[in-house]
């Protein structure tokens, strides 16, 4: 239920307008988190990045915090440029358009992308992106890829096992 008493999907459900979560403690009886607990951090101003009309193609920002479980990027495609057809076999990706417009093409058709469009790209899906006349700036978020491991050719197990 939302604070307003309805079950509208996508609306916060806590009395303060946020989805309720676990208490602010770490489960200790003191109610205080440990001194080395991670803290929230403002990372960048996506509106300022999206407003860079002359930004180069590619990643304008990358999540680089140590210990993270996610990867995230703000990417700019200049007008008419593409991310060619590809398939991500392992990771679901959230794709949020920050500025501009474009199209997402998948085997079942083409979808229009505009500022504010949030798209789920499930793992295993095939897609391509094309920037519109003003270019396309977007945020992607997905689970962090595990680090590369060296495996022995005979067992498939990582060395040192």
Automatic annotation (TrEMBL):
Positions of the UniProt region annotated as Disordered: 1-40
Name of one Pfam family that matches: AraC_binding
Keyword Repeat tagged: no
Positions of the AraC-type arabinose-binding/dimerisation domain: 93-142
InterPro entries: AraC-bd (IPR003313), RmlC-like_jellyroll (IPR014710), RmlC_Cupin_sf (IPR011051)
Superkingdom, natural source: Bacteria
Keywords per UniProt: DNA-binding
Protein name: AraC-type arabinose-binding/dimerisation domain-containing protein
Organism of derivation: Streptomyces composti
Source organism phylogeny: Bacteria, Bacillati, Actinomycetota, Actinomycetes, Kitasatosporales
